[in-house]
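step=encode ok
step=design start
structure_in=
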């Protein structure tokens, strides 16, 4: 397994819609393993393929990542698709490995249902609420070229972008 390079705003790949994966084979499984290792290394709770420069509909998630970067609930999702959303919404303070050192409150659905292919290519459906639902929505957004800063006010987004430019 390998630690992969993280792409950060304003890399073009982060604004592109990703391609569906035709088959979950050994090459995809290796990518999933490398993505999970990279996510843990950077103490993240989710990572989407475009964040490591791959335009494929693949995410890894672990809502139980510890401060030390250890995981307890790894999930591999290929071609994830939200198939159901609650009427209720919640505000959540989100950050992103591709928008380092910044965060903002984002409105998300409180409960969702996601259909996806697992590590072995078998179709699965998961129901998620609260924190896990937020993580999944955030990562699936990446697959459509949407960053969390695209879901906040223009003023707040501009402030974050200015801070990112100062960091660079």
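sequence_out=
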């Amino acid at each position: 397994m390998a630690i992969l390079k993280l792409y950060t705003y304003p890399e073009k790949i982060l604004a592109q819609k990703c391609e569906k994966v035709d088959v979950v084979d050994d090459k995809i499984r290796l990518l999933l393993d490398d993505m999970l290792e990279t996510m843990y290394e950077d103490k993240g709770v989710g990572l989407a393929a475009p964040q490591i420069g791959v335009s494929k509909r693949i995410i890894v998630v672990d809502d139980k990542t510890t401060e030390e970067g250890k995981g307890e609930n790894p999930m591999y999702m290929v071609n994830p698709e939200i198939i159901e959303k609650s009427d209720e919404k919640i505000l959540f303070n989100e950050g992103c490995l591709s928008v380092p050192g910044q965060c903002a409150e984002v409105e998300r659905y409180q409960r969702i249902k996601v259909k996806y292919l697992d590590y072995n290519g078998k179709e699965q459906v998961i129901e998620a609420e609260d924190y896990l639902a937020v993580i999944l929505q955030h990562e699936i957004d990446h697959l459509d070229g949407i960053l969390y800063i695209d879901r906040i006010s223009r003023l707040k987004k501009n402030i974050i972008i200015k801070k990112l430019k100062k960091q660079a």
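step=design ok
step=annotate ok -> The chain has a mean pLDDT of 96.
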